[in-house]
Write a structure and sequence with these properties.
Layout: E1 15-16, E2 25-31, H1 94-100, E3 104-109, E4 116-122, E5 133-138, H2 142-146, E6 155-163, E7 166-171, H3 174-177, E8 183-190, E9 195-202, H4 209-220
Antiparallel strand pairs: 1-9, 2-3, 3-4, 4-5, 5-9, 6-7, 7-8, 8-9
Length: 235
């Protein structure tokens, strides 16, 4: 039997969805199998790169350079990662799933899969509290993400340390919270490809919700793509 633990503070597991409170549609499924974390390697096929792209820049799709902490300012309309979005479930290891208290994972997204990808994780069906844990990656750069209509005026804190060289933003959906729930907190940070995001939605309590979101982000951040060569489209 899997050992489960709470993440962060607040005492209870909560519903977690990636990015915003839009409808999430599951696209393919997979259990908590021992899938290896995706990584750059010699076996990765070369991608087409536009003429004049500087080697090992954020625009170089074939770069294997570790770009942890690099924050792109390339707008979505000029991003080379448009249509180059991997299935991030492949990056989430069994060890991380155990730490997060989840047993199954499922590829999921809303909107276009060409500019956004997510992995949705759930506990065992027998577990008494239902929740979903989602990690999302976006082609949008962080400023475009923060400027989205659903997130405007939602920023409550910046400079949140997620990892060495990685600082994130905390956002709250105040309009939804004013109705009495569900409560939510998003932690998002800029990356070389755009934005990474973790969002907790709790139908019952807002106690420590941002602390719990930060705790989940700290577990997942080291597993997400670190180099352009890891950004390959998956069906």
């Amino acid at each position: 039997m899997m050992v489960r633990k709470q993440i962060g503070v607040g005492g209870a597991f909560v519903s977690v969805l990636a990015a915003t409170m839009l409808t999430v549609s599951a696209c393919s499924s997979g259990g908590g199998s021992a899938e290896p974390a995706a990584s750059s390697s010699a076996s990765i096929q070369s991608a087409s790169v536009a003429p004049g792209v500087e080697k090992d820049s954020v625009l170089d799709l074939n770069s294997t350079k570790d770009m942890t902490g690099v924050v792109t300012t390339v707008p979505i309309g000029k991003s080379p990662y448009d249509k180059n979005m991997p299935d991030i479930c492949n990056f989430i290891t069994p060890a991380a799933m155990t730490e997060l208290g989840v047993e199954t994972k499922k590829k999921g997204f809303y909107g276009s899969p060409l500019v956004y990808q997510a992995c949705l994780l759930r506990p065992a069906a027998s577990f008494t509290t239902d929740f979903t844990l989602g990690a999302g990656i976006f082609v949008n750069n962080i400023q475009e993400h923060l400027g989205a209509p659903s997130l405007r005026d939602a920023l409550i804190r910046s400079g949140v340390s997620i990892a060495p060289k990685v600082e994130a933003y905390e956002l709250r959906d105040r309009a939804t919270n004013k109705t009495g729930g569900p409560y939510s907190c998003e932690v998002a940070w800029g990356t070389f490809y755009g934005t990474a995001s973790i969002n907790i939605i709790d139908d019952n309590s807002e106690e420590g919700i941002c602390d719990r979101t930060v705790a989940a982000a700290k577990i997942l951040q080291p597993l997400l793509p670190k180099s352009p060569s890891q950004m390959r489209p998956t069906s």
